[in-house]
Specification:
Length: 264
């Protein structure tokens, strides 16, 4: 009977370490709005993990209809559907701020369960509309830009900053800043702006002295200003492997000592 009881802590310790070694990982994505007070907001952020083949946009080429809806109205639904049909990955989600949109200083987080050894978990992409605007957005055009796991299944992740100089113009709607056409500034229905049929390019910035920058609520929303940062995106593994090791190893040693002591 003593021998059976002494095996319990040993079995628990082995179970902990076994789960740590299993090919599965929880990865957390955190988006923090770095804009100053009275600066730009972000719509709920689309995030996806894939094999490196899911290309959100190409600079100098027309935006897809899915990207158009995100850049003009902040809707992630068409992009979610496009990703699901692409076959590039299976894990995606939309990160919401406390009130939906992510205000300056606010954060949005979401956790994903990924297989580190699967090619569909290797790369990360994101997209969000910058508001208020007609069709300003942030996203990574290079699908290979952000590695989550390497070929050996080791976590890479990390953190990066999206500066104001990286804000993009979808080229799908005229930047007239007319409230009725401008999301988060008076627009009452989606897809109500003046169509331009142009291409994706760097955004020139809001109209100097125009409706947006003249508004007290967005007095500091000039993302073309020197040092202006839009967002910080952090991709982290939860829990950290080192933390598991620190907990698991002493537990295993303690169990072994107890087991050996009771055999004497």
């Amino acid at each position: 009977m003593r021998i059976r009881l002494s095996l319990v802590p040993l079995a628990c310790a082995v179970a902990v370490l076994t789960s740590w070694q299993a090919p599965a990982a929880t990865v957390q994505v955190k988006i923090r709005n770095l804009a100053p007070m009275n600066g730009t907001f972000l719509t709920p952020v689309w995030a996806g993990f894939h094999d490196g083949s899911f290309d959100l946009y190409d600079s100098g080429s027309p935006a897809s209809s899915a990207l158009e809806r995100l850049a003009e109205d902040g809707s992630t639904a068409p992009l979610t559907a496009l990703f699901a049909m692409s076959g590039a990955g299976t894990q995606q989600g939309t990160l919401l701020g406390p009130m939906g949109a992510i205000a300056p200083g606010e954060t949005a987080t979401m956790s994903f369960n990924l297989d580190p050894l699967s090619i569909t978990s290797r790369y990360f992409s994101y997209a969000s509309m910058v508001i208020p605007s007609n069709d300003a957005f942030i996203a990574n055009g290079n699908p290979l830009a952000f590695t989550v796991f390497n070929a050996m299944g080791q976590f890479v992740g990390g953190s990066f900053t999206v500066s104001g100089s990286m804000v993009l113009d979808a080229g799908t709607e005229l930047n007239d800043e007319v409230p009725a056409n401008t999301a988060f500034f008076g627009q009452m229905a989606p897809d109500t702006g003046v169509t331009t049929n142009s291409v994706v390019m760097l955004h020139p910035g809001f109209i100097p002295g125009g409706p947006i920058l003249s508004s007290a609520m967005f007095a500091n929303a000039d993302f073309t200003a020197t040092g202006y940062n839009v967002a910080e995106i952090t991709i982290s593994e939860v829990p950290e492997p080192a933390t598991i090791a620190l907990i698991g190893t002493p537990l295993l040693l303690l169990a072994l000592r107890r087991y050996r002591g009771r055999q004497l």
